[in-house]
Amino acid sequence: xxxxxxxxxIDAWGPDASFAQLNPFATPKADGAGRVIASPAAVFxxxxxxxxxxxxxxxxxxxxxxxxxxxxxxxxxxxxxxLLVALQVGLGSSSTTIELPLASAVTHNGVAAxxxxxxxxxxGRLGH
Length: 128
Prior knowledge:
The chain has helices at residues 40-68, 72-94, 101-125. By secondary structure, the protein is mainly alpha-helical. The protein has one domain. Helix 1 runs antiparallel to helix 2 and helix 2 (72-94) packs antiparallel against helix 3 (101-125). The longest helix has 29 residues, at 40-68.
């Protein structure tokens, strides 16, 4: 875990890094015990994930609330979106505080897949 405090990763609102540090081919550095050392790029990537996650969650909450006021079939999609977004944000937030970060991350990815499936289904339902 390279960033344990929410929403801050370090003592500032944003880490001291740039997009140039996000090299997917870089080899992580480890200490003598084999633990991965958190680099500024890892902190920046996690911070970027959290910030963009909050933006996407806000939009999906707005969309879910708007869909709840529509016809019956779309109302169900609204409730589903609201439920999945709340679950997703809760899982993402809890991954920094619980003792099972791998189980939390896998569940977080599973709910993300369900959220994507719900959005694709909604897109198909709207006739696009």
